[in-house]
Amino acid sequence: MITVSEAKQLISECTTPLMPIEVSLKDASGYVLAADIFARYDIPAFRQSSMDGYALIFEDHKKELNLVGEMAAGTPHSFPIKSGETSRIFTGAPLPDGADTVVMQEKISKANGKIILHDVQLRLGSNVRGIGSEVKAGELAMQQGNLLSPAAIGFLAGIGITTVVVFPMPKVAIIVTGKELQQPGLELSLGQVYESNSYSLSAALKGEGIHMVEVMEADDNLEILTNILQSALENSDVVLLTGGVSVGDYDFVIEASTRCGIEQIFHKVKQKPGKPLFFGRKDQKLIFGLPGNPSSVLSCYYNYVLPALKDLSQKQNTVKEITAELSQDHKKPAGLTHFLKGKYEHGKATPLNAQESFRLSSFAQANCLILLNEEQQEFNAGDSVTVMLLPD
Ligand SMILES: Nc1nc2c(c(=O)[nH]1)N[C@H]1C(S)=C(S)[C@@H](COP(=O)(O)OP(=O)(O)OC[C@H]3O[C@@H](n4cnc5c(N)ncnc54)[C@H](O)[C@@H]3O)O[C@H]1N2
Ligand code: MOO
């Protein structure tokens, strides 16, 4: 059996970024840029006023000026101003030819039809956005690896970009296995449990902006599972199976994976919950066999699946690891890393009640997982522990 860090390392080594795709800028929010973007135009493309006021030749700023025209934003025509002249101008408008400075309208007065400036701070070029002051044509505007945040999208639109090359989000197939599974909303017969793993996983994926998710159900039958897994592999980048990875007579995930030509990278990790975790690879596709207990599924998702999904799309992991103070004593046997559902507040991490892996009630209240080292058995209040802060 391998350790948690060995398992993470192996998954990371098997994960390569997805082939970049071109998307419309309008659809690119949340993706990571896969190619540098160079500016095609000088932006601003003309000398632009940043204030409502009056455009002038700076040398004239102590003179009384004659008002000779007006430039509004979007005005397609300019006109020249000469020494002793000024033009009304509005924010965003092009400067008239010859003008080099704008004075805010609050800083002038009018007398005998003339404009008189009262702005001791006015300098040559005040309140003028120069040509190419945002970006210059040919300049690197945004580097590969940049997350396309709302601001990044706005910036790119503002320099005239319409499409971008990005790392796509992975297509994910979820296969829930188990003859005992019943859909929520229907009556439970003896032996049945409500199917919840596809719900929690779909919700987690949606929260990461992964919307191409297909959910399939497989009975505890090797032939059926093999066929479903085969079709999932054809249509997705990542396959998440839940259940059927332990040692029971009806646990067919490992055998079905072999039949589908999946290379086993590891099976079983020194951890609780989620000890029977399976990970395999076929070509560039990643296959996770998540132990069926609902809490094991999510614990393994945050520890192993999410970092891999992020690497495929070159995004930052949304689980943040920090060090915190354990708020109470805790004992565990040596041999397995434990992930406790916990509450993190004001620098302290508190394990919640109901840690069993078949239950989700504590996970539903948790905002973190508290990592307790493999070999250590006794933990005291005040000890420093690693805490994984879960995404919202
Ligand atoms: N003899 C041993 N038995 C078990 C071991 C072991 O080492 N030796 N490991 C235990 C551990 S730890 C875990 S975790 C489970 C994992 O088993 P499987 O991955 O084969 O999962 P299943 O047996 O199919 O299901 C486990 C549990 O979870 C329920 N389940 C499954 N799928 C769903 C779903 N989609 N929604 C809700 N609940 C689900 C299922 O009904 C079971 O109760 O094995 C232990 N056994
Ligand atoms: O490894 Mo299991 O998830 O504890 O029940």
TrEMBL record:
The keyword Cell inner membrane does not apply. Pathway: Cofactor biosynthesis; molybdopterin biosynthesis. Its EC number is 2.10.1.1. It is an enzyme of class 2 (transferase). Residues 173-311 form the MoaB/Mog domain. It catalyses: adenylyl-molybdopterin + molybdate = Mo-molybdopterin + AMP + H(+). It comes from the Bacteria. One of its GO terms (cellular component) is cytosol. Catalyzes the insertion of molybdate into adenylated molybdopterin with the concomitant release of AMP. This is Molybdopterin molybdenumtransferase. It comes from Pedobacter metabolipauper.
